[in-house]
Write a structure and sequence with these properties.
Radius of gyration: 21 Å
Mean pLDDT: 89
Number of domains: 1
CATH class: Alpha Beta
Oligomer: single chain
Number of strands: 8
CATH architecture: Alpha-Beta Barrel
Amino acid sequence: MTRSSRADEPAGASAAWTADRFLDQWGLQASQAGALPSSAKRFPDGAQYRIEIPSTEGTACLDAVLGAARDFGVPVHRVSQGSGVFMLTDAELGRIADTAAAARVEVSLFARPNAAWVNSTMAASSAGLVAGSLTRGREQLRQVLDDVVRAAAHGIRSVLIADIGVLAAFSAMRDKGIIPPDMQAKISVMMPAANPASARLLQDLGASTLNLPTDVDLADLAAIRAAVDIPIDLYVESPDNLGGLVRHHEIPQFVRIGAPVYLKFGLRNAPDLYPVGIHLESVATAMSRERVRRARLGLELLARSGYTPVISELGAAGLAVPSPGARRSATQDADGPDEPGTHR
């Protein structure tokens, strides 16, 4: 039996020549990837995978992504941002929520700042880079939680979290009704789940989706999938500062083994623009369009593989699509005005 005919892995076209069949017939042993178990877990709508475009840094980038999605025929289910909620004006937050809600697309904004953005000499050192994603001290914890609450007030229903204490506080705020019960915690790739125990801990602490290391191998992906039920976010192509990997040919196995999975299309050989602003808008929007084109490449490669997993429709159940109708003024406080000299 050739690899392409095995029921537990993506199959090639039965009637046409395939490189896989040729190599089997030529006597070269097939990869062991097909021996890894297929995931029976699914998104709430029964789908196996969705598409995410990361680094969608504001209104112009969101417009660029949605325009490119139409041009290239790519169903973009989620966009995420890395600059931070506080790097967006109230008007920009409102427009992002309105635009994404109309397009039935999830928006996840980073809850910032983190140690790497302030006066942390450790985070700037070669051995201390791992500290960059940490939230330092009570004051920075307050700042990050303010980002979460502000995002929720504008109708955003997903935030990126890169610190385990922030995740615990987020879950407590959600339980107490400080933020909406449908608010989602998307774990950042800056706090990746690198093993099944870490993945289960993050799930238990209230994570809604998990990022894995950009270089995760298929066996480790299978082990983590077996340990948790929540969706996995997985870079197909990662930026240079996250490894610069281009893994489009592994998409069939990513979906088969990792479902439910968000396939993330970053961009290699591109500048790190965080935090993005008007001065970088032309480059940022061009990069946004190219990420969508990269997703088109991935979808076409998946189709050529002969494997036909189920993809979600836009606005499917479980997506944290913004709720702009629930928006209140960003300056309004349900507990009353602040006292002079205090900070919320």
